[in-house]
Design brief:
Chain B: Its main location: periplasm. Chain B: Keywords: Periplasm, Signal. The complex is a heterodimer of chains A (about 325) and B (about 425). By secondary structure, chain A is mainly α. Chain A is built from 14 helices and no strands. The radius of gyration of chain B is 25 Å and the shape is globular. The chains are: A mainly alpha (about 325), B alpha/beta (about 425).
Chain lengths: ~325, ~425
């Protein structure tokens, strides 16, 4: 009798026990772990084949002089790492990648937030504006690059023509030829494509802000600005964190618009790390150096994301 | 009778069965995927390539040609990506020259064709100087079969030059005076699309050759004379001076080749540096081909005023080709007199073929001027000849020179530094 009564007691304990708890052969949780593993196996296999394996391969290639998939690569130790550290274009493109990231977070994230606030405050037509403003996100980045390269065309482009028709010719610029302007100009195109997603996320976040807080602020005589600072933005904290993280990751992945609109030029003025990786890997077939740059970029992405999340967590406490 | 009928029927059945088995044995269905002309979207060009396809299929029963639309070339990495995808073409036509071929040859993406040059007599089907050049580039191994030779020089509007009394004759001072006059007339003197590599190379190649001469440029691209040689620096300085004088708008760095051609075809620019392929580009823009003028860049040197060029486009066989033997047949077919004449006399003909065709009557009259200009040979388009390791730096430096971001000395030193990589 005693043993019979002990069984349900032990099951109950095991069900609430941490995974490290000691289990015996007749422990029913063994089955649930087996089932979980079986269900996870396809996903794990896909992840291993398409993510883990390439990562391992990239690390391996970075220690070789691989000139392509069909060549025999020799082990060259840290040569590629030394080459990368001595290549001024690598450092310049890294700096530009940071600048690109900053522009993207501010332009795409900022525009997404502003438009989310504007659309949410509308009494009518929310769905129309939400849909319309999201549309650019559906356009492929390569197509966006072609469209905006034409907008910026110095001779026939929409932007300079518009400025001229408004008697503002003095504001017309070489949007893609001025080395100090080119990265910003390309980023505007990229951010135009990206802001729609961030706007939707912010709109979703705004719907979760407790409306009674606005009522309370109203009673306290808060201005619209004060409500934004003290009610809306704190209420959006979680979404804001997510959007900034997402924008940073998307910013790091920036490639298509730069490649299509400037090809990294003029004279490397818009070369970011991803375009340089492509150039090394697929144009120069210098896979060893390209692999090192990929690793650098991954480390950069991890560092930025972890640092940002730690900073945010510290702010939250 | 019954026996006879049965025997006849049996014999007929046997014959039919034999035929049914015999046909596939002699005519086996094969598919050859060809990455052909990048201009094939043009109906007229497509008409020519469809004719070539028909003739090849007739000459090779059972073979079907499937054209794969090119997504780019070696310069932009599209060829490399297509081959590595294993879903690429069986034979491809791409921009070439040792600089570009080095990239795909070193990466072992294309097959050596040296044996075919001997076995199929290809070495006698291209200019001897061309074969000599190709056979000394990769320790005797050859990876490309030239489809045509480029002849890059100045394209201008005949009417515009006649109306304004502008001339492209004389020396360098005369040339800059003409460019000044064009600028004063409110027209962009030179249109160039620097953004996507090659057209900037066409421009600077002519400027460098006009200052240093074709022989020295040959030695420079071969790595025998440094890029920092004063004669070469002088050519780059001429380019920078042209920018400063307003002959080349720095905003050209943001244009690609197509945008620059549009600018020229709309007569907002007077001069464009390009090869005869330019004819097809402007024809697509409905430009009056009778108004096309072709001239070599003025130079103070005796031999500085000639087109630059070299191998422009070549056939290659990817290592991933599923039909390597058929690919060789295709290249052999393209080198045949029949196809060369067909292409050279077609209304879309826009290149010097890979061997001398003395009987050719060009349909587009300006091609006669191209033939005449190239009669004494063409100089060196550096994009074609410099090693792949220096190509990217070369293109970026051109943008830097026109954009005012780098001095001629520093820019050329950067190219020189990459020559030995």
């Amino acid at each position: 009798m005693a043993s019979k009564s002990a069984i349900p007691e032990r099951v109950g304990e095991a069900a609430h026990a941490p995974p490290t708890a000691v289990r015996t052969e007749d422990d029913p949780t063994r089955d649930s772990y087996g089932t979980a593993f079986a269900l996870l196996a396809p996903a794990i296999a896909l992840y291993a084949v398409f993510s883990l394996l390439p990562i391992v391969a990239t690390v391996g290639i970075s220690f070789t002089n691989s000139g392509g998939f069909n060549t025999e690569a020799q082990f060259v130790g840290l040569d590629n790492y030394v080459r990368a550290s001595e290549d001024p274009i690598v450092w310049q493109s890294l700096l530009r990648t940071f600048l690109w990231l900053f522009y993207h977070v501010v332009l795409a994230g900022g525009l997404g937030l502003v438009l989310a606030l504007a659309v949410s405050s509308l009494a009518r037509g929310k769905v129309f504006f939400r849909t319309t403003l999201f549309l650019p996100h559906l356009v492929s980045l390569a197509v966006v690059g072609v469209i905006w390269a034409n907008i910026y065309d110095p001779f026939y482009g929409l932007l300079n023509t518009l400025l001229a028709s408004l008697n503002l010719s003095h504001l017309a610029q070489g949007w893609l030829s001025d080395p100090f302007l080119v990265l910003f100009s390309v980023n505007v195109a990229s951010s135009w494509q990206g802001f729609g997603l961030y706007m939707l996320l912010f709109i979703a976040g705004l719907q979760n802000v407790d409306p009674t807080l606005y009522d309370a602020a109203e009673v306290d005589g808060a201005s619209a600005w004060q409500k934004l600072i003290h009610v809306t933005l704190p209420g959006l904290r979680e979404v804001l964190t997510f959007v900034v993280s997402l924008a940073m990751i998307n910013g790091l992945k920036g490639f298509a618009t730069v490649f299509v609109m400037t090809n990294g030029g003029p004279f490397y003025a818009s070369e970011i790390i991803t375009t340089y990786i492509y150039r090394m890997a697929f144009q120069a077939q210098d896979h060893g150096l390209a692999a090192v740059l990929c690793i650098m970029m991954s480390v950069l992405a991890i560092t930025i994301t972890v640092t940002f999340n730690r900073w945010r967590a510290r702010g939250a406490t | 009778m019954k026996t006879n009928g049965l025997m006849k029927s049996t014999a007929m059945l046997a014959a039919l069965a034999g035929a049914a088995f015999a046909v596939p044995a002699t005519v086996q269905a094969q598919n050859l995927v060809v990455w052909g002309s990048d201009l094939q979207a043009d109906p007229l060009v497509n008409e020519l390539w469809q004719e070539i396809k028909t003739r090849f299929e007739e000459a090779n029963p059972g073979v079907t040609i499937e054209y794969m639309p090119p997504t780019g070339n070696i310069s932009d990495g599209a060829v490399q990506a297509a081959i590595q995808s294993e879903a690429g073409p069986d034979v491809l036509l791409t921009n070439s020259g040792i600089g570009r071929v080095t990239i795909v040859a070193n990466a072992k993406l294309v097959q050596p064709l040296t044996a075919q040059y001997e076995e199929l007599g290809w070495k006698d089907k291209i200019y001897p100087w061309l074969y000599e050049q190709l056979s000394t580039q990769f320790n005797g191994e050859i990876y490309e079969v030239p489809d045509g030779v480029d002849a890059i020089a100045i394209w201008y509007h005949k009417d515009m030059f006649e109306e304004n009394g502008w001339s492209l004759e004389g020396g360098w001072a005369d040339f800059t005076a003409t460019l000044d006059a064009i600028k004063a007339a409110g027209v962009e003197p030179i249109a160039v699309g620097i953004r996507n590599c090659c057209n900037g190379g066409h421009l600077i190649g002519n400027f460098l050759q006009a200052a240093a001469g074709p022989q020295m440029m040959g030695e420079v691209v071969a790595g025998e004379v440094p890029w920092t040689d004063p004669a070469v620096v002088a050519g780059a300085q001429n380019l920078v001076d042209s920018v400063k004088a307003g002959h080349i708008n720095p905003q050209m760095t943001s244009l690609d080749q197509d945008a620059a051609i549009r600018l020229w075809a709309n007569k907002r620019a007077a001069i464009f540096f390009g090869g005869p392929w330019f004819i097809n580009n402007v024809r697509q823009l409905d430009y009056d081909l009778a108004n096309l003028g072709y001239a070599t860049i003025p130079s103070d040197l005796d031999d500085g005023s000639r087109p630059t060029g070299g191998v422009g486009w070549s056939w290659m066989v990817p290592v991933s080709s599923k039909q390597p033997e058929l690919a060789m047949k295709w290249i052999d077919f393209m080198l045949s007199e029949e196809i060369m004449m067909l292409r050279a006399e077609h209304q879309t003909s826009s290149q010097l073929m890979a061997r001398d065709l003395p009987d050719v009557e060009p349909v587009v009259p300006v091609m006669g001027e191209v033939f005449a200009a190239a009669a004494e040979g063409v100089g060196y388009n550096p994009s074609v000849y410099i090693p792949g390791s220096a190509l990217d730096t070369y293109y970026q430096v051109i943008g830097g020179l026109v954009g005012g971001q780098v001095s001629p000395e520093d820019g050329l030193a950067q190219i020189e530094a990459k020559m030995g990589d």
